[in-house]
Write a structure and sequence with these properties.
The structure holds three protein chains of three kinds. By secondary structure, chain A is mostly helical. Chain A has 14 helices and no strands. In chain A, helix 2 packs across helix 13, helix 4 packs parallel to helix 8 and helix 12 runs antiparallel to helix 13. Chain A starts with a helix and ends with a helix. By secondary structure, chain B is α+β, with helices and mostly antiparallel strands. Chain B has eight helices and 19 strands. In chain B, strands 6-7-8-3-9-10 form a six-stranded mixed sheet, with helices on both faces. A five-stranded antiparallel sheet of chain B has the order 13-17-14-15-16, with no helix packed on it. In chain B, strands 2-1-4-5 form a four-stranded antiparallel sheet, covered by helices on one side. Chain C is mainly α. Chain C has a two-stranded antiparallel sheet. In chain C, helix 4 runs antiparallel to helix 13 and helix 11 runs antiparallel to helix 14. The chains are: A mainly alpha, B alpha+beta, C mainly alpha. The interface between B and C is medium-sized, with 22 and 17 residues.
Chain lengths: 302, 344, 294
């Protein structure tokens, strides 16, 4: 069958299998080289005691993990990460669903409302957080000024200076930032609900709340799951908000795993410990992704 | 020499066999229709001839040359898709010129060719428009002009009329026929619409479950169906089929006439027809009922409006079929068999 | 059953009232959300024009110009800081990242959408999952990789790494756009005398323009947002992007140049938000196309 091989070679540009390999390989190679390789390296680091001062790869078994676990700051950061993710995402789901319900409707000034509402998400995180840093300033906070004018407080709140209010602030700012993204995702889901279902419900005479809880939310459940997936990954892994607002302070009371990994690994030079801290995120993220994707798939949306 | 010839062609998608051993030869300049219900493999067969699908097995010859393994562009074919697939980002002129550009024809000759093709279809005034500014009929003409401009050896059409509304469809069919006769180019036309197939085809290949069940002229496939599938697929309403213990026989509804209307009584086979329901459709009357002795099977008779004889419902009537209009099929495999004496 | 006129009128009045309450709730909700979202930005917007002896008086009304507004701090921002460098750096990174992303994600998305790969669906989901791997997991080894390549303290470190984030999501987005282009067009081009690659270049790519725009917007968004890698790789001011440059360079020790800082934020956030808003509907469409038809 020499002719067949000859024709095949002549028409390589038409061979789907050849093209598939040609088209996929740059993406696959790029991802393997710059995601896969560093990922393996992260795992290797966690079993050594590598640091910027001692760049030798010397395996120490589980010693690095033991040291990390023994550190009270790490335990604080682990607990904070959990608290942070749960509280922020509960608020995100509630607020984002409400916001999406508003944004799919027609009303005057919708363009402006959409623009303002999206600002927290589309503005670069670190910059958006700076506006809060200034809003929560220990002396010149306009929130404190209003509270003082109303006679509710006499002394300033020192929002970012005390453990309790600092944690509240950090969670609030993170929620503030993620709600727009989650709302946009939920909006996509709302738009995708066939209008004959909404029409049928309207004809049945269901009121707003019944419509919301019996039709809209069950239909939206899978897309809300996707929004939660993004929300969780952001709250667990993103360090910008905490880093810019408090750097984990005061005295590590807002420290989370991502900031702790950065402070340990990059600023402190303890690469192995930083990698080990970051790796604690991995099982959590895998579990979340698996659960949420399974939920979403079962509802046949993804 | 056959312009298009396929031998033992098979195509499997996973465990689904779309085309299951098809042998087919088209004759020079003929209009060959591939007719069948959706999913019968007709479009897959056409796409294999075009080179858009690779056959699992079998050979495709175009103009006597084996083209298996050649990509579409090397086959000197033209194809019109159901959607017309006009390039939305190009003007009509550029759409028509597109195959010529691919050949590397020089611009001057190209312009001439485009004008010639546009002239054939009367679309010269549309040349600077974009596809979205055209009506359905105009789109079809542009698609045809683009297909023709390259002067292909074969013309492949995949349900080109199904996107048009009923009124336009009749006109477009006339256009298409007239153009094909004039150019005399071999054409393979896929459709699921038997009216189109009967009206346009020089020959019809009736397909089902990936196989060609019958290949013949419209008269042959209509009056001498090769098996019960063809008998029931063609004709509206379809052929009446009745089972005896050893074979199946059938007749067309328009052949089933009340006694006294039909001439030459001697050569006719009489039946007792119990009529349940009558539909008046203006130009004809449909009688629904059953024949005594074959009570389970519904039978339809179609009387032209010229037969004004009153027929009462829920009563037995004497009807008959000319002997040579009865068709007989094997009880087991449904294939056509020779004339039988009707057992009573 | 027949209804009296009064019954119908009562029902209508009830329905009207309910509708009015619904409208009221809608506007109240919209205003509340807009206020909460925009509040810190509005405070920033006012601050950036305030004189220092107005801003730094604890008892002054923060929402009012107690002294005449001034552009002095904007002048400081543009002339005495590296703000413009940060902006040009960000744009440069955004441009190159866009180019790399398109070069790699377009073919991959095409293959996933069109070439009937046996492992296509699984690969599509795998690619999407790569997007979910956060930089937090990778930045420590990545810093070592960048250092050993000699790319630290250079914009090329970011250019090399950002496509790991943009490629997966762009491939997913573009897959949706590819699926939106009828297969017939491509096959027609192949029948009309082109190879598959020729058909893609002449017919498919010109129709991908909206998808290419979406990827560009996304790459620029990332270049202006990304914080961890930018913070870990580049410490000198000349190679910082706005995301790291503004918070680290305009805050010097304990001295905050608050007006300039807020101006820096506003001047970036508003244009980005405007562009993003213009493309939002298209993003939603692209995203759901990738998901629903996948």
């Amino acid at each position: 069958m020499t002719t067949t091989t000859a024709t095949k070679q002549r028409y390589l540009g038409d061979n789907p299998r050849f093209l598939a390999g040609l088209f996929m390989s740059p993406a696959v190679l790029y991802i393997i080289a710059l995601v896969g390789f560093p990922f393996v390296l992260a795992i290797i680091y966690a079993f050594t005691d590598i640091s910027t001062g001692n760049p030798e790869l010397e395996f120490v078994g589980w010693a690095t993990f033991r040291r990390v676990l023994a550190d009270p700051v790490f335990r604080e950061a682990l607990w904070n990460t959990f608290l942070f993710a749960v509280i922020a995402n509960v608020m995100v789901v509630v607020l984002a669903t409400a916001l999406a319900e508003i944004l799919v409707r027609d009303f005057k000034g919708k363009w402006l409302v959409r623009f303002l509402v999206l600002l927290p998400w589309v503005a670069p995180v670190s910059l958006a957080t700076i506006t809060w840093l200034w809003t929560l300033d220990s002396i010149f906070s306009p929130i404190d000024w209003v509270l003082r004018q109303l006679g509710l407080i006499t002394e300033n709140m020192y929002w970012l200076g005390q453990p309790g209010t600092a944690m509240t602030s950090v969670i609030a700012v993170q929620t503030w930032r993620i709600v727009p993204l989650a709302a946009v995702i939920v909006m996509a889901g709302l738009i995708a609900i066939p209008s004959d279902i909404t029409d049928a419900v309207a004809v049945d005479g269901a009121g707003f709340w019944r419509r919301m809880f019996q039709v809209t939310i069950p239909l939206l459940a899978p897309i809300i799951a996707v929004a939660v997936l993004f929300g969780l990954i952001l709250t667990i892994s993103d360090m910008s908000v905490v880093y810019v607002l408090t750097r984990g302070g005061p005295t590590n009371s807002t420290q989370v795993l991502s900031t702790w990994a950065f402070i340990k690994g990059i600023e402190g030079g303890a690469l192995a410990q930083g990698a080990a801290v970051a790796l604690f995120l991995l099982p959590v993220l895998i579990a979340i992704t698996a659960i949420v994707l399974r939920l979403a798939r079962r509802r046949e949306v993804m | 020499m056959a312009v298009v010839e396929v031998r033992g062609l098979r195509k499997e998608f996973g465990d689904v066999t779309a085309v299951d051993g098809v042998d087919l030869q088209s004759e020079e300049g003929e209009f060959l229709v591939l007719l069948g219900p959706s999913g019968c493999g007709k479009t897959t067969l056409l796409r294999m001839i075009a080179g858009l699908e690779q056959p699992t097995e079998g050979e495709i010859m175009l103009g006597g040359e084996d083209v298996s393994g050649l990509p579409p562009r090397a086959r000197r074919i033209a194809m019109v898709f159901q959607s017309y697939a006009l390039y939305p980002h190009m003007t009509v002129a550029n759409n028509i010129a597109f195959p010529l550009k691919a050949q590397g024809m020089d611009p001057e000759e190209r312009t001439k060719k485009v004008e010639w093709a546009a002239g054939l279809f009367g679309i010269e005034r549309l040349l600077q428009r974009r596809p979205r500014q055209l009506s359905g009929g105009e789109r079809q003409r542009v698609a045809l002009a683009r297909a023709l401009v390259r002067e292909p050896t074969v013309f492949l059409l995949d349900e080109p009329l199904s996107n048009l509304d009923a009124k336009l469809r009749a006109a477009a069919r006339d256009d298409l026929m007239e153009f094909q006769r004039r150019i005399g180019i071999t054409t393979i036309y896929v459709t699921h619409d038997q009216v189109e197939a009967m009206g346009m085809g020089d020959r019809i290949a009736v397909m089902n479950h990936g196989k060609v069940r019958q290949l013949g002229t419209p008269e042959e496939v209509y009056h001498h169906p090769a098996d019960v599938f063809v008998a029931q697929f063609l004709g509206s309403p379809p052929m009446n089929l009745l089972e005896t213990p050893t074979y199946v026989f059938g007749f067309r509804p328009e052949q089933f006439l009340p006694e006294g209307i039909a001439e030459s009584e001697g050569t006719r086979v009489p039946f007792t027809f119990h009529v349940n329901r009558i539909e008046y459709l203006g130009s004809e009357r449909y009688l629904y009922g059953y024949i005594r002795e074959y009570d389970e099977t519904r039978v339809i008779a179609m009387l032209p409006a010229t037969v004004t004889l009153p027929i009462a419902i829920d009563q037995d009537h004497k009807f008959s079929v000319a002997k040579d209009q009865l068709r007989f099929f094997d009880f087991d495999d449904g294939h056509k068999i020779a004339q039988q004496t009707l057992m009573r | 059953m027949t209804w009296g006129d009064t019954d119908i009128q009562t029902l209508q009045r009830q329905a009207d009232r309910r509708r009015q309450w619904g409208r009221f709730g809608l506007y109240a909700g919209a205003i509340l959300f807009a206020f909460l979202a925009a509040f810190p930005f509005s405070w920033a917007l006012i601050s950036m024009f305030k004189q220092s002896n107005d801003l730094y008086v604890k008892e002054n009304n923060p929402f009012w110009f107690n002294e005449a507004p001034t552009l002095e701090h904007m002048r400081l921002l543009f002339l005495d800081t590296n703000y413009l460098t940060f902006i040009t750096n960000t744009i440069f990174v955004g441009l190159v990242v866009t180019a790399i992303t398109l070069l790699i994600a377009l073919p991959a998305a095409y293959a996933l959408a069109r070439l009937r790969l046996r492992w296509g669906e699984r690969l599509g989901i795998a690619i999407f999952l790569v997007y979910l791997i956060p930089p937090t997991l990778l930045f420590i080894p990545m810093t070592r990789v960048i250092t050993s390549l000699g790319l630290q303290e250079s914009l090329w470190s970011l250019i090399l790494v950002y496509p790991t984030i943009t490629i997966p999501i762009s491939a997913w987005l573009l897959m949706g756009f590819f699926k939106g282009i009828p297969m017939d067009l491509e096959e027609q081009a192949m029948v009309d005398g082109h190879s598959r690659i020729g058909a893609i270049a002449r017919v498919v790519l010109p129709l991908m323009f909206p998808g290419i725009i979406a990827v560009t917007v996304f790459a620029f968004t990332l270049a202006s947002h990304e914080f961890i890698y930018a913070l870990a790789f580049n410490k000198s001011s000349a190679v910082k992007t706005i995301a790291t440059g503004v918070p680290t360079e305009l805050i010097r020790g304990d001295v905050f140049f608050w007006q300039s800082l807020q101006g820096a934020v506003i001047l970036i956030a508003i244009p980005i938000a405007l562009i993003f808003n213009a493309f939002l509907d298209r993003f939603i469409k692209g995203f759901t196309m990738g998901a629903v038809k996948g």
